[in-house]
Specification:
Elements lengths: L2 H21 L16 E8 L3 H14 L3 E8 L1 H9 L5 E4 L5 H10 L4 E15 L6 E2 L1 H8 L9 E4 L5 H10 L9 E3 L3 H10 L3 E6 L1 H4 L6 H4 L2 E3 L1 E3 L10 E2 L3 H6 L5 E8 L6 H10 L1 H10 L2 E2 L14
Pfam families: PBP_like_2
Protein name: Phosphate ABC transporter substrate-binding protein
InterPro entries: PBP_domain, Phosphate_ABC_transporter
Length: 310
């Protein structure tokens, strides 16, 4: 989304917010409304690894715009891409942009996407609380993904064979398929966290959003696992150091496994999906991202009032 168009839409969005807040007081429940930036119904497909943060933003979005009804559908990366290419979805949240080959489908249809980056996420390695090591070498993880063995990494556990975390690390390892030994897939990030909690020796791979912002039902598991620190060979200068996926390490680039998050809109026109994208990238949305532990695209400013002493 170019800067000029984004500025115009943001102005419309703010004006619409003013009138919608006034109008919502007298709008009867259940009254049908046309889809606009702040009203109507739409569906957003969300990558499983960032499910919690989108849920939080949508909860606030719905509370502000009571005539908006955005249904969040959580899926794997491959499922979301397939839905886009089959034209069964138009607004999605993904930790990557579409490839040139994937984009060609929409170019043929004359559809230019609205791309809205809103945060930087990280892929985290977790292990059982009883583990002696609190660090892991990225090269050992990649070695296992290449089908080799490692004395330090015995078992890797992903959330799903079609997930974005699998695709990210396979690309980093330079391989196209998950090896048949020492790498296992479950179904969800929740299952990975519970499995690692109960299984000494396993290393789970999840989106960091699930660790900094877990559902209430997962808190007791997250509180009793260890998040491993990872080395960063790109910045090592003779002395190896390890970094955890904290907000500050993501911001400074010290943590090596990060990725941008995007709202991708292939609708071909403005609607409620556009309104959601504007909101999540606005100062209000970015404050929610900041509080979640992820890194917002823009750091919201804080106004400090200086009072003159009498």
């Amino acid at each position: 989304m170019n800067y000029f168009k984004r500025t115009i839409l943001l102005c419309i969005f703010v004006i619409g917010m003013f009138f919608s807040c006034k109008g919502d007081k007298t709008t009867p429940d259940g009254k049908a409304v046309n889809e606009t930036l702040i009203a109507g119904k739409t569906k957003v497909l969300v990558d499983n690894t960032v499910q919690p943060i989108v849920e939080d933003v949508l909860a606030v979005f719905h509370s502000v715009y009571s005539r908006s009804h955005v249904t969040q559908v959580n899926m794997t990366e491959n499922e979301i891409i397939n839905a886009l290419l089959q034209d069964s979805a138009s607004v999605v949240v993904l930790p990557r942009l579409l490839t040139a080959q994937e984009e060609s489908h929409f170019e043929k249809l004359g559809i230019k996407p609205e791309v809205t980056p809103f945060a930087t996420d990280a892929i985290a390695f977790i292990t059982n609380k009883t583990a002696k090591d609190t660090v892991v070498n990225l090269e050992d993880v990649l070695k296992v993904l290449k089908g080799n063995t490692s004395d330090k990494v015995q078992k890797l556990v992903f959330d799903n064979g079609n997930s974005s975390t699998v695709q990210y690390l396979l690309k980093l390892a330079g391989v196209k398929q998950v090896p048949s030994q020492n790498v296992y897939s479950l179904k969800t990030n929740e299952e990975v966290i519970k499995y690692v909690h109960d299984t000494p020796g396993a290393i789970g791979i999840v989106g960091v959003n699930w660790l900094v912002q877990p559902p209430v039902s997962l808190m007791k598991y997250v509180d009793n696992i260890t998040v491993l620190a990872v080395d960063n060979v790109k910045i090592d200068k003779g002395q190896k150091k390890y970094y955890k996926p904290t907000q500050s390490n993501i911001a400074t680039g010290l943590y090596p496994l990060t990725r941008k998050l995007y709202v991708l809109n292939y609708r071909g026109g403005d609607g409620l999906g556009t309104g959601f994208a504007i909101y999540i990238s606005s100062p209000e949305g970015q404050r929610i991202i900041l509080k979640s532990g992820l890194l917002p695209v823009t750091i919201p400013s804080r106004e400090i009032e200086v009072r003159k002493e009498l």
